[in-house]
Structure formats: structure tokens, C-alpha cells
Amino acid sequence: MAVSIQHATTEFEKKDRCVGLDHRPRVLLGKMGLDGHDRGVKVIARALRDSGAHVIYSGLWQTPRSLAISARDEDCDVIAASMMSNSHLVLGPKLLEALKAVGRPDIPVYMGGILPQEDVATLKQLGVQQCFPTGTGLLDIADAVVGATKVRAPEVSKHATAQLARDVSLLHDGHKLRGAVKKRRPKRVIGVTGSPGAGKSTLVAQLVSEYIRRSRTDKALGRVAVVAFDPMSPITGGALLGDRLRVDFNTLGESVFYRSLAISGEDYHALDEIVEMIGGADPVEVDGVSGPIETVFIETVGAGQNETRIHKHVDKTALVLVPGMGDAVQMDKAGILEIADVFVCNKADHPGQNELVRDLREISGRRPVVETVATRARGVAELLDLLLS
């Protein structure tokens, strides 16, 4: 979607515009095709967050199928698709078809950007519910997203994954489920925690990609899921949920179930039940991977020295650190070091890597220390071996 920016974006009033709704709007911002510009989308994302919405940003160069999978797994109320490459009449209908294929034809599609006025009527006839041409105000977009948010029905789809996504939403928000839901704890629940900017999301994306590569030949591994937490605004209740943009869904498709959730602090109130619901999902075969979900990665919000509650919900914890975080005394003060089963020195190509690894080995005892460069997948296979052992 596009927006006319006449004033500094900081002038957009932070205000919870979602009061009285059944739940906070979950909106997927997506850019299909060859459009490589995302400044406008980021402005819109911040405005929606500052209005109290939970915004999932899927990144650039998405396909209709990857957006449909993301919208389904995130149980979105609306997709806001930005079009800048004059392909709206082709990609718009393909997105609608993809939503049907993944079990959520009911998710409305809003489209914005460079849309010729003469094409708007055609897009609406094809099934796009609203169109926002260049110059649409931020408040108009926020109001449209709020207007798309309806009461959640306990049963949303006959598609197993679509229904799982809805069950996760209801459970996390404290609403009633659709009756008996099968629950089973997966074989492995792995927590990935660390300070903001340590590269957790990129590392998890690489771990998932490696896991799926292996599970296509080793059927005993089963499928994999990710539950990624991000912080909720203490002012508006909104959130930017951007962890999934590190995952290449254009390649991985439906082989990973990926769900983003917003929390305040370390409020993991529903996590154990969510994990059990994911593990209890019916075994299926998708994109070359079959079986039940046997491994779930839990990515925490950016953690500080004393944020350690995730340890109570997982079987194994990987603590991600980066060079330059402080000396060994600072590290010994950090309570979070006590919960680590595996220490990860990420960004190991940065200055200070040798000092960090030395300090970690001084305090780790028998716990392993792994060096990774997540952006290049270096050390990822070794780390996965340790987490699966």
C-alpha cells in the first residue's frame, strides 16, 4: 500500500484505535512481485502499530502463495498488499486463488499503491475488497484495518492448518475453543533467546531451513514449527511482528508452521498449551515433509539479564550472544546465562569474536559453545546437531 508523506512520521498520534474490538487486528503487510521498495510499507506498519494493531510484515518479493500461507498461519484479519510493479491485475487474482488453496478464502484482501483508477472496479469485481491509491492517508488505512476485524468464530476452516492457526489465536487471547482439541507435546521444544539484535530470527530461519532439508530424507524427524514472540506496546497495545520475514517462504512453502505472537514482558501464559496443540495437529505431508510436528522452536523477545522464564517451557535453551556485549564480569552478572544449555556466538565474523568465545568457555563448564554466522548459515548444521541431540 502507498501513502503520501507530507509531514514527519513521528507526528502520527499514538492512540489505541482498537478499543471495543473482539481482539487486536492482525494485519499482514505484503509486497508481491518484483517490488523492492519498502519504505512506504514500513511507515504504514508503524502507523498501524501505533493504532493498536498487530502487524505482520512478510518482507519483499513475496509470491501470492507465500502471502497466503503467511496470512493463514498468522490467522490474519486482513491482508494489505502493496503493488508498485504494474502487476496488480495478475497477482491480485492469484493471491485470492492461493487463499482458497490454503483454506482461508474468507481473509479479505486490501490493495494499495500505484493503482490506475480505471483498474479499481476490475480489482473489486475480481474479489479485492478495498483499494487504496497513492495519497491515501495513514488514518484512513488504520480505520480500514480496524473495520476488517470481526468476532472470531471458533471453527474457521476444514483445512487442518488453518484451523490450528485459529485455535492458537483463541487460546492465546483467552477465548473458548471449538470443543475438544487434540493435544500432544512434541518430541523437542527448543527455546532460542538472547539480546535484541543478536540475530535470533535469522538464526531460527536457518535452523528451520536445515531441519526441513534433513526431514525430507529422514522421515523420523517429522515436521517443524516456530512460535516467535515480539513485544507489545505499553502505550497502544500494538506490535510489529517481523520475525517471519527472515524465513524464505517462497522456497519452504508450507513445510514449516510459523506463528508470531505479541506479549508484554515474559507473559508466556498459554505457551505450553499452544505447543501441545501444535504437536497434536494431524500428521500431513506438505512440500516434501511428512508426519506430525515433532520439533518446535520458541523464539523469545529480545531478552535482558534477568529474563529467564522461557526456560520453564522448553526442553533445551540456546542463548544467542554477539561480540561486544561486555566482559566476563558482566556476563557472570547476567542471570540469563544460567538457563543456557547451548551458548551461541553469532556474528562470529565480527571483531571481538575471539574474546567472546574465550569468556563463554570460562563460564560454560561442560555446556557447548558454537560459533555461527547466521546470515551465511555458517555453524548452523553443528548447532542443530546439538539442539536435536
Descriptive notes:
- The protein has 389 residues and is an alpha/beta fold.
- The chain has 2 domains: 9-147, Rossmann fold (3-Layer(aba) Sandwich), CATH 3.40.50; 188-388, Rossmann fold, CATH 3.40.50.300.
- The chain contains 12 helices and 15 strands.
- The protein is globular, with a radius of gyration of 21 Å.
How do the helices and strands line up, and which of them pair or pack?
Layout: E1 26-31, H1 39-49, E2 54-57, H2 64-73, E3 78-83, H3 88-101, E4 109-113, H4 117-126, E5 130-133, H5 138-147, H6 160-172, E6 188-194, H7 200-215, E7 223-231, E8 239-241, H8 249-252, E9 256-263, H9 271-280, E10 284-286, E11 289-291, E12 293-299, E13 316-321, H10 328-333, E14 342-345, H11 353-364, E15 369-371, H12 380-388
Parallel strand pairs: 1-2, 1-3, 2-8, 3-4, 4-5, 6-12, 6-13, 7-9, 7-12, 13-14, 14-15
Antiparallel strand pairs: 10-11
Helix pairs in contact: 2-3, 3-4, 6-9, 7-12
What labels would you give this structure?
Rossmann fold; seven-stranded parallel beta sheet; 32% helix; alpha/beta; single chain; 389 residues
Portion in strands = 15-25%
User: Based on the structure, what is the oligomeric state of the protein chains?
Assistant: single chain
CATH class of the largest domain: Alpha Beta
In N-to-C order, the SSE pattern is EHEHEHEHEHHEHEEHEHEEEEHEHEH
Largest sheet: 7 strands, parallel
Number of strands: 15
Low-confidence blocks of residues: 4-9
Q: How many helices?
A: 12
Q: Roughly what percent helix?
A: 25-40%
End-to-end distance, in Å?
A: 45 Å
**Can you name the CATH architecture of the largest domain?**
3-Layer(aba) Sandwich
CATH topology of the largest domain: Rossmann fold
Rg over C-alpha atoms, rounded to the nearest angstrom: 21 Å
Overall mean pLDDT: 91
Strand order of the largest sheet: 9-7-12-6-13-14-15
Instruction: Give the class from helix and strand content and strand pairing.
Output: alpha/beta
Q: How many domain regions?
A: 2
- The shape is globular
